[in-house]
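Amino Acid Chain and Its Fold in Token Form
===========================================
Scope: a single protein chain, as residues and as a discrete description of its fold.
Amino acid sequence: labelled as such and written in the usual single-letter residue code.
Position: the record begins directly beneath this header, with no further notes in between.
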Amino acid sequence: MRFRHPDGSTVHLAYCTNVHPAETLDGVLAQLRDHCEPVRRRLGRDRIGIGLWLAKDAAHALVTDPAALRGLRCELDRRGLEVVTLNGFPYEGFGAEEVKYRVYKPDWADPERLEHTTSLARVLAGLLPDDVTEGSISTLPLAWRTAHDEQRAETARTALRTLAERLDALEELTGRSVRVALEPEPGCVVETTRDAVAPITAIAHDRVGVCVDTCHLATSFEDPHTALDDLARAGVPVVKSQLSAALHAEQPHLPEVREALAAFAEPRFLHQTRTSTPAGLRGTDDLDEALAGDALPDAAPWRSHFHVPLHAAPAAPLTSTLPVLKSVLTRLVGGPQPLTRHLEVETYTWQALPPELRPRGRTQLADGIAAELTLVRDLLTDLGLKELP
């Protein structure tokens, strides 16, 4: 979906397809048919954007076979879909029964991450609509914290500099500009937007910026205005923003609140949980750890990295951090000029919700995704943007 900002520029809104597991090119093509086009039809639009997730095998098939890339581009056009951004964070296996820590591998100190992201950039350059010259790729924030020493940190910085040089060459060759965005996430080397400033300024290349994920930002109890001010002062661009909401528990000391939270502790994804204390941020790597005894102080609210549907807050006594999303979005696109032009709804946890909240089949899932996009569309038009045909 495209929107005209009051300054005349175009802001793109997509939803991320990592909600639909697929590891191969055939699987991606099936996604377009079975999920993405039905979402577009529910919205009554001739065209919508998708933030495409391409696993390692699918990306390899596209970058090594020009005919396959042309075929995907034609299929997108035929189904009224367009791609200006890719989710390059998960490498493979995102639809597995247990993802957890695996999603952080390979990290930016591993050669596979550089080669995969290079492939994604080449693919994206071939998928951008004819009237769009700028694309974006979100990627993991260097590494999970526990296996990252200074040597690996320097290897990661070198890899990102190499990627930036390749993106320069790609633009010279194709006329398409692709930028990569580190996506701060709790538990990673770059956990917050403030953590992103030093490594990105050390790389010192305008091809590398930040992806502001509003669930991650909220989970870390970052103030949206402070976070975006810090990035602006440091000259770090917001390449894209993923619009998502975290799980919020106002009174985690209450037994009924803990019982409600326990329904969201599940085996597939990691749900880092945080609380803000006078001594600073405290946290656990997963929600079940937070619920075990006194692993996490419970005198103040908890937030958990669980991407809950934007339009449907959990039932009391829980809620979501949708107000944080609204605050971030206002700063990003509500000013005289947009701070980013690529917005992506990223709720990939539909099938990880408590059983009674999960969509039953493709129809309900498409209805839910369309409802999320409708909510964001309304927020954007309330901020003065005009939806384009």
